[in-house]
Amino acid sequence: MPLAANPLIEVSTGLMIWTLICFGITFFVLRKYAFGPVQNLIDERRKRIREALDEADHARAEARKLLEEHKQLMAQARGQAEEILAETRQIAESQGKRMRDELEADRKRRLEETTKQIQSETARALEQIRVEVGELTVIATEKVTGKVLDDADQRRLIDEAIGELDFSVLEGKR
């Protein structure tokens, strides 16, 4: 009486040996002709993946390095731009100050020139007034006395008339 009802589950020694021999031959053939090339393909693919990862790491490191260099260059450019702006402001301020100083010096020079002109014109006008006062005095004296005075008398009379006049009011306005 068989132990198992199904013939596929029944243990047969001869079948087992032939199955093991077929399995061994198949394993040997697969190992010699299939597992080696498949393993080589897997190893090559693993190698390419590692190389790609290494290249990606290298590219990432290079990108970080370039980014840091870019940041440094940008910071350096900003610093230089700020220096140029500060220098430009300083130059503009110094030029503005120089222009203000030049304008102030020119204004003072013109004011002094104008003051000198006013003083000289005032002195000339006062001298002209003195001369006219002297001439009027001589004419008035000649009309009052009825005689013509000589040069010495005219000079003495003019000096006395001018001495009596108060020119300080006119001179004070200078």
Task: Give the secondary structure arrangement, pairings included.
Layout: H1 13-145, H2 151-164, H3 168-172
Helix pairs in contact: 1-2
Low-pLDDT windows of residues: none
- Helix count equals 3
Number of strands: 0
Question: How would you describe the shape?
Answer: rod-shaped
Mind describing the biggest β-sheet?
A: none
Radius of gyration, in Å, reads: 63 Å
Beginning-to-end CA distance, first to last residue: 158 Å
What are the secondary-structure elements, in order, as H or E? HHH
Helical content, roughly? Answer: over 70%
DSSP strand content:
under 5%
Q: For the residues shown, what is the average pLDDT?
A: 86
Structural class: mainly alpha
What this model shows, in words?
It is a single chain. The chain contains 3 helices and no strands. With 174 residues, it is mostly helical. It is rod-shaped, with a radius of gyration of 63 Å.
Task: Summarize it.
The protein is mostly helical. It has 3 helices and no strands. It is rod-shaped and about 190 Å long.
